[in-house]
Write a structure and sequence with these properties.
Elements: E1 4-9, E2 26-29, E3 33-47, E4 53-68, H1 75-86, E5 89-96, E6 101-102, E7 106-110, E8 117-119, E9 127-135
Length: about 140
C-alpha cells in the first residue's frame, strides 16, 4: 500500500503546499485501504422554459477513503488521531514511491460527527479507524 501523512494545526499554514517530514503535529500511516482522488461534483441539472436541458457544474472536490488497521495504530497514534479529528485545520500528504518523495499538503476536512475509532471485537487493544476526508478547496 502507500504511505500518508496527516497533519493538523490550530492556525492555517502560511506555506500550505510545502511538505515537511519533521513537522510538529504530524504522523505518517500505512493504511490498509487508501482510495485517493475520488472526484465528487456539485452541479445543477434541469430543463429551461423552452425545453432545452442544461447541466451546470459548480465545483468538484477530491475525496479520500482511508482505513487505518490495528497493527498500524499504537496508543500514541490513536491519541494523535483524536487530536487530528478535533483540529480546525487538517492536511494530508501522500508518498509517491516512484519519485521517492512526498506530495505537497492538501487541506482537508472530515465529515464531522463521532470520531471513527472502532474496536475489533470490542477489545480496546484492537483499534481500527475508517474515515473519509475531502479537500477544502475545489479542484
Amino acid at each position: 500500500m502507500g504511505l500518508i501523512a496527516l497533519r493538523y494545526t490550530s492556525e492555517p499554514l502560511d506555506v500550505l503546499m510545502t511538505f515537511e517530514i519533521s513537522a510538529e503535529q504530524q504522523e505518517t500511516f500505512s493504511p490498509s485501504s487508501f482510495l485517493p482522488n475520488d472526484i465528487v461534483t456539485t452541479e445543477e441539472i434541469g430543463v429551461m422554459r423552452n425545453g432545452r436541458k442544461f447541466s451546470h457544474l459548480y465545483y468538484t472536490h477530491f475525496e479520500y477513503n482511508i482505513v487505518l488497521p490495528t497493527p498500524e495504530l499504537t496508543a500514541a497514534k490513536v491519541t494523535f488521531f483524536k487530536a487530528f479529528w478535533l483540529a480546525p485545520y487538517k492536511y494530508i500528504s501522500e508518498y509517491q514511491p516512484d519519485a521517492e518523495e512526498w506530495y505537497d499538503y492538501k487541506e482537508v476536512q472530515t465529515e464531522g460527527g463521532k470520531c471513527p475509532i472502532e474496536y475489533v471485537d470490542g477489545k480496546l487493544l484492537l483499534p481500527r479507524i475508517s474515515f473519509k476526508l475531502s479537500t477544502v478547496n475545489p479542484v
